[in-house]
Amino acid sequence: MQNPAVPQPERKTLDDRERMSELERLRHSCAHVLATAILRIWPDAQFAYGPAVENGFYYDLELSHRISQEDFPRIEEEMKKEIKANHVFEKRTMTREQAILDAQSGRLGGLAERPGNASKFKLDLLNQIPEGEAISYFQNGDFIDLCAGPHVMRTGNIGAFKLTTVASAYYKGDEKNPQLQRIYGTAFKNKTQLEEWVKMQEEAKRRDHRKIGAEMGLYAIDTEFVGPGMPLWLPKGTVLVEELERLAKETEFQAGYVRVRTPHLAKEKMYRTSGHLPYYAESMFPPMEMLEEDERKRRTQLTEKRADLIQLAESIERAVSPNPNGMTGEQVRHDIAKLEAEISLMGGRYYLKAMNCPHHHRIFAAEPRSYRDLPLRLAEYGCCYRYEQSGELFGLMRVRSLNMNDAHIYCTPEQFASEFRAVNEMYLKYFKVFGLEKYQMRFSTHDPLKLGLKFVDEPELWKQTEDMVRQVLVDSGIDFVEVANEAAFYGPKIDVQVWSIIGREFTIATNQVDFAVPKRFGLLYRDRDNLGKTPLCIHRAPLGTHERFIGFLIEHYAGNFPLWLAPEQVRVLTVGDDEPLATYARGIVDELHANFVRVEGDYSANKINGKVQDAETAKVHTMLVVGGRDREAGHISVRLHGKGNVGAKPRPEVIADILASIRERRA
Ligand SMILES: [Zn+2]
Ligand SMILES: [Zn+2]
Questions:
Q1: Which of 37, 250, 399, 453 could be disulfide-bonded to 79 (CB atoms 3.0-4.6 Å)?
Q2: Cα of 488 from ligand 2 centre, angstroms
Q3: Is residue 655 part of a domain?
Q4: What is the pTM of this model?
């Protein structure tokens, strides 16, 4: 199970704060400097959260002036002054009473007291600090903020910074709260690092999957008719989807998986059992009500009865009719409430699936299982639906409908280590196929003090599985970090981070051990001793979802996909349009087509340079250029996208090479 929830700016625990890296401290410190600068220009601004985030920091503020990019130079100018002043970030511990007074006077998140303009968000944040936890301020120059730190020593430690964007965000991410302005920026120890980062951002912009996706005609999002966050795969994008599925199916077949298919929805009971309801309800689409025939009749009866009772209650309360059976209005109201409860529980509530696991668990349960059937590896490219707030949707990267490279491996504790190792090897195999050289696994374990609270109370299983996972990681020499207290509720997990060719980081996949949910579903197998036992379950999705993974690949390859993946693999171009030449070219197209190559022909009279230009623009992987002399010699001149001419070779050799490159999925 993967939790796609967006991290909201929750209060950091003291542990989290201690773990903040030097760079995160520097960036968070820069958020204070940003606030200082804004207050110099707009003293009324009210500040809320100002954390360090991936790639930088932000600060949320309320201000009647709408800040735009045009304001950035002015703000940055003030920030530079504050950094030049080299103020100390001075920490002071305060009493709650004093802090409340300071917030009321507008002093917190301000340069001075601001009568009539209380620091309302800081006041609210104060109330969230648990009783007994220290309350502290950090002050740089005139600016005082309610903050637990940590910070760098002085404002002058901020070597280089840049404001990047401004967006809007609800206070605490809740649309019922006021909408604030969120200013993003980034900061580094020195100028060189900042410049490198800026360069990478520009390259990332050039490779933006939304831009390339539109140019190449890979997918469309039709907000009006289909809905936001639900990509339509156009024919060329569908090629990518199906090539990835083919890769996954072949790989999984060789690794002993079997394939299953499941519906897109299931009854409420499924998700109550899995535990998605009620805890995960916010990330699911609202339920569909569906009554079977007999239930519909019963509901009509109950609704009519309820209408009668409402009338009765009203007349009793108005004292116009004597009450039958000596019932009071209150008693009748009570009966109405009971009826309403019954009506609301009637029939079936169906949910679109947010995950495939529960369906797979029911497939496990569909037949009696013995230890001889294990490990059972059920694989499916499952289509899931998750409710993401519209403001969080982002191209293919954050969507509402997603197709997941999912599988669940049911095994005995003895089989666990080898199964887990095989899963890891599959990840590595894929990394090789896609030329991902930099990756890291993040191994999240439990905290023994939180057994039964944050983590399912199975101390032995935790220890066993964590030891095994750790051993597998060490043995395979994979670069990994271990983080305590971040496992899933039901078992340790591994998040896989990869870096694209331009050094951008993505979390593409999760690999999890689950020893709690199979029990909730009552899954059993007969062991050698003929006793019913609960299997362990491994959730794995090395290629993540099509949406996210293809979004990542578009950036990684800048749309220049390797031959096996390219939507248009080959285009045959003629130098001129005389008939014998066109016939020769058509023969090549037909031969490739018969071998399932995605090939087009351009036999027009246009100049060859223009034809090549068209094919380059369309990011066709291989261009086969044929002229009169090629035809006479039975040759083909090969040109590769972005690489230019690689010379003429005999036709059979060229075709054999193309087929081999596709078959071997060469990079
Ligand atoms: Zn701070
Ligand atoms: Zn799962």
A1: 37
A2: 12
A3: yes
A4: 0.78
